[in-house]
Amino acid sequence: MTTTRRILGALAALMVAAGANAQPAPPRTADVSIVLVHGALIDGSSWRGVYDLLTRDGYRVSIVQQPLTGLDEDVAATRRVLEQQDGPVILVGHSYGGSIITVAGSDPRVKALVYVAALQPDVGETSGEVAPPMPPASKDLKPTADGFVFLDPAKFAADFGADLPKAQAEFMARSQMPVAGAAFSVRLTVAAWRDKPSYAIIATEDRALDPEIARRMATRAGSKVTLVKASHAVHISHPREVARVIEAAARAVK
Q1: Which of 49, 80, 93, 176 could form a disulfide with 98 if both were Cys (CB 3.0 to 4.6 A apart)?
Q2: Could you tell me how far CA 107 lies from the centroid of its own chain?
Q3: Where are the alpha helices (DSSP H) in 68-150?
């Protein structure tokens, strides 16, 4: 009997030790998926910092790699990703991605929209009308022969990501994804923020999207606003603040 007790005691001690050394389970989250949509000139890898934080907290995250060849094509690429989701979705867009989620957000799976230094056009408006590029960025945009637009690499850091590490900004300047200029002249036929809750992160040091215009769009949409002292690349330079807003939107889903 004594031997049996000793064995049981040893097993119990091992179980306690194993429990102490085990990695904590990720926080339980609502059954919500998060879909991230990048803006013009960059790609989905720009969301890496936000992605890491959201997945660490237990959320299922998908990232759209839209082609930036036109608003219809970019919306279609976003809808393909939405179709793969199970349950409710928080749809997040940066910059021009805001126009994309305003249309694609009409999908019934989408329960809330998060605009990150993003455009929030209304029905009948174009992306170019609602928030034209502000100087000096507007002067630093360069057209291609086939109708695409890119930002002068020498001015990219100052105009787009002044708070990014120099080497990172230089790499992004040289790896730009030019965007079709025609995408900014398409009039929207739907604005999902009209009947769904929305959140807006405004980058107060933004040199691409005028913060005052961003605030007016957010106010019109009834978005819950968060101000972050950051450049247009706020989701890269301040991923924690951006992830916090996205998670607040996810927790609010009933």
Answers
A1: 93
A2: 17
A3: 71-82, 97-104, 127-130, 137-140
SS3 content of the chain, % helix, strand, coil (to 5): 45, 20, 35
Question: What residues does 64 pair with on adjacent strands?
Answer: 37
Helix (H), strand (E) at residue 243:
helix 239-251
Q: Give the length of the chain.
A: 254
CA atoms within 13 A of residue 212's CA, in its CB half-sphere: 1
159 touches 139 (CB < 8 A):
no
Q: How far is CA 105 from CA 92, 168, 200, in A?
A: 9, 31, 15
- The domains of the chain are located at 26-134+183-251
Query: 3-state class of 69 per DSSP?
Result: coil
Strand order in the sheet with 89-94: 60-64, 33-37, 89-94, 110-116, 198-203, 224-228
Residue 76's alpha-carbon distances to 69, 156, 226, in angstroms, are: 11, 28, 29
CATH architecture of the domain covering 26-134+183-251: 3-Layer(aba) Sandwich (3.40)
What would the pLDDT profile of 174-229 be if each residue is shown by its tens digit?
999 999 999 999 999 999 999 999 999 999 999 999 999 999 999 999 999 999 99
Q: What are 140's two structure tokens? A: 């630093």
- Residue 211 — φ and ψ, nearest 5°? -60, -30
Nearest Cα to 242, choosing from 92, 56, 37, 119? 92
